[in-house]
Design a protein that fits this description.
Elements lengths: L1 H19 L9 E6 L7 H14 L1 E2 L5 H5 L8 E8 L4 H10 L5 E4 L1 H4 L4 H9 L19 H9 L3 E4 L12 H19 L5 E3 L4 H4 L2 H10 L2 E3 L6 H4 L8 E2 L6 H8 L8 H8 L2
Parallel strand pairs: 1-3, 1-8, 2-3, 3-4, 4-5, 6-7
Helix pairs in contact: 1-12, 2-4, 8-10
């Protein structure tokens, strides 16, 4: 009941903010979307979501990250689609995006991709609570194969790092941190044929990253995509890229809430804590 009330509030607040629009995004703003599962049966809903977003924003190709963060792009606001974990059902999302001339970033977990028991791995190490009313097919809880990831890369999508095992934590040992940050990069370069430039920290960034991990990420990758929502135009910080979590099964009004500014203030403390590491 509590979660239903929270979702109701977010839907009302999101629709109200979107309707009144007391502010507007600058032509240099970049909204980075953080998505996860995209079940095939949700294709129509995802198509409608993409249509809405492309009316509001200009899509940013992953290859345009460098010019954006160098301040060279100002014809936005922009939107970049990213998908965490490398779930096989993201193939549907890739198809819909490609039909609209859009390319995305897929953050993969190599230990999940290579597991002999991928569904068990997913449920144990990535998402312990799976809503079977949404994710109930095999492709909803299992990963892309290496060949499927190569095909995505060949079609212009970016395959980037989401740690080696999804088990990076702020209390991880130095050896574990090195494996999560560096070995995942090596695996992607070896198996996909392209050295990753983006690292995406799992769960909540402050729960998964300590000062050593933050330093190793900065040394290994040009970009660190966090779990914090915010305005990238105001930071233009390659090691603190803000993302907005949305899911394909959410109502459009709830998605509008996530895209707005109502919720940003409560994240300022978490962002400051990360910056002080």
């Amino acid at each position: 009941m509590k979660q239903q009330l929270i979702n109701l509030y977010k839907g009302i607040a999101g629709q109200l903010e979107y309707t009144l629009r007391p502010w507007k995004y600058s032509s240099r703003e970049l909204i980075v979307l953080c998505m996860h599962s995209t079940p095939v049966e949700r294709r129509q809903q995802f198509e409608q979501l993409v249509s809405f977003l492309l009316r509001e924003f200009r899509p940013l190709n992953p290859s345009q990250l460098d010019p954006y963060f160098k301040g060279e792009l100002s014809s936005g606001p922009y939107v970049l689609f990213t998908f965490d974990d490398g779930l096989k059902n993201n193939a549907m999302a890739a198809e819909v995006l490609e039909a609209n001339g859009v390319r995305a970033v897929f953050f993969v977990v190599p230990d999940f991709v290579t597991s002999d028991h991928p569904e068990a791995y997913y449920r144990e190490n990535i998402r312990r609570v799976v809503d079977s009313s949404i994710d109930h097919e095999v492709e909803d809880v299992t990963p892309f194969t290496v060949q499927e990831l190569r095909n995505l890369s060949d079609r212009g999508h970016a395959i980037e790092s989401h740690t080696m095992s999804h088990l990076l934590r702020a209390n991880s040992s130095p050896e574990q941190i090195t494996r999560e940050v560096q070995t995942s990069s090596v695996w992607i370069e070896k198996n996909i044929g392209r050295k990753p430039i983006v690292f995406c920290s799992p769960i909540q960034t402050n729960f998964s990253v300590n000062s050593q991990a933050k330093q190793e990420i900065a040394k290994q990758y040009r970009y660190h995509f966090t779990t914090f929502p915010g305005l990238n135009d105001q930071e233009l910080n390659t090691q603190l890229v803000f993302r907005r979590n949305i899911e394909v099964h959410w109502s459009l009004s709830r998605i509008k809430y996530s895209l707005g500014r109502v919720d940003l203030s409560r994240w300022k403390g978490e962002t400051a804590r990360f910056q002080q590491l």
